[in-house]
Amino acid sequence: MKQIIIFLSVFLLLSCTTSAVKESSEKAFFTNDTINVRAKKSGLPEGVSRAYLLLFTDYVGNFDLQKEFDKNLRFSLASLGISTETKMRGAEVFISGELKFFAIFPAQRITNTAAGLFYALRLNYSVFNPENQVIQKDKMEENILVADTNTYPYEKVFPILVQSAARHTAEAICYGWQLSYSRTTNQVTTLGEFRETNYYTNRSK
Length: 205
Prior knowledge:
Distance between the termini: 85 Å
Shape: elongated
Low-confidence stretches: 2-27, 36-40, 178-185, 197-205
Order of helices and strands: HEEEEHEEHEEHE
Structural class: alpha/beta
Strand content: 25-35%
Radius of gyration: 24 Å
Number of strands: 9
């Protein structure tokens, strides 16, 4: 009986050890004597530095937006150590996406109180490996609330919106969602200050 108990104990111990080793899709993000935080791998696989970037599909009908986003996304990826290859053959991953929605509407719809403008850009992005297997597939949203439209007309806000969206998309592609891109929906960039006076007006653009 004693031998059976010892055999079962050893068998269970080996089984537990084997199952822990098989969790290759997880890695430790923080470990000390008392805490061991583990999570699924996110972002690009380790060692990946060459990507082929397809021009994002333009569903919003704004070629300037499509062109500027593509340029800024390439720049943002390069600043994070990811070169965008000119030929598919040299790429380790492929990035594609869709510009789904771009609109400017009165800020009252968001703030319920003050006049201004609300800029909204939404997009999807996907990352594939050379075997056409999906590594990432997610949605992005970039919003800017413009309080002072005299100081911040469309010509100034548009590049800020595009640069910010491209930077956050590049961060999400490289690192996943748990690191530098961890904003919540109520954290919206605001340009200018809302003021309530009889002499202050906001332009539509």
